[in-house]
């Protein structure tokens, strides 16, 4: 049954589903595996950290500390189009976890984050 509420548990479910897709994606997998690592322990830590990011964005929890934009600046250059792939996988994952109403709220935030990152990374 799809979640009708955005809460810590559903965000954790989202992180599980989403990052399983990312790890094996033909375009994004290599970038993420290089940045995060390939061990399950490294991925668990990453999912927990990024889950905290989404908890802060969606619930106002304030648990995330860090600078996600800076982390993207530190990556080797990658095509702008990869943000569309990221968003597509994120939306697929939302479909598996959330009701349409929750999905719409989260997807709007994800699109805003992606657009901000693209503007900062690719606009000189």
Automatic annotation (TrEMBL):
Signal peptide as annotated in the record: none
One GO MF term: heme binding
Origin: domain of life: Bacteria
Record-annotated membrane-spanning stretches: none
Stored InterPro entries: Globin-like_sf (IPR009050), Globin/Proto (IPR012292)
Name of this chain's protein: Group III truncated hemoglobin
Organism expressing this protein natively: Campylobacter iguaniorum
Lineage: Bacteria, Pseudomonadati, Campylobacterota, Epsilonproteobacteria, Campylobacterales
């Amino acid at each position: 049954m799809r979640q009708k509420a955005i809460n810590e548990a559903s965000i954790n479910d989202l992180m599980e589903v989403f990052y399983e897709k990312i790890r094996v994606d033909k375009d994004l997998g290599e970038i993420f595996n290089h940045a995060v690592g390939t061990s399950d322990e490294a991925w668990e830590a990453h999912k927990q950290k990024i889950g905290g990011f989404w908890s802060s964005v969606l619930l106002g929890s304030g648990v995330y500390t860090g600078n996600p934009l800076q982390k993207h600046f530190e990556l080797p250059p990658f095509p702008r189009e990869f943000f569309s792939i990221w968003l597509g996988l994120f939306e697929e994952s939302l479909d598996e976890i959330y009701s349409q109403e929750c999905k719409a709220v989260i997807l709007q935030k994800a699109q805003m984050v992606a657009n901000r990152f693209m503007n900062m990374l690719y606009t000189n």
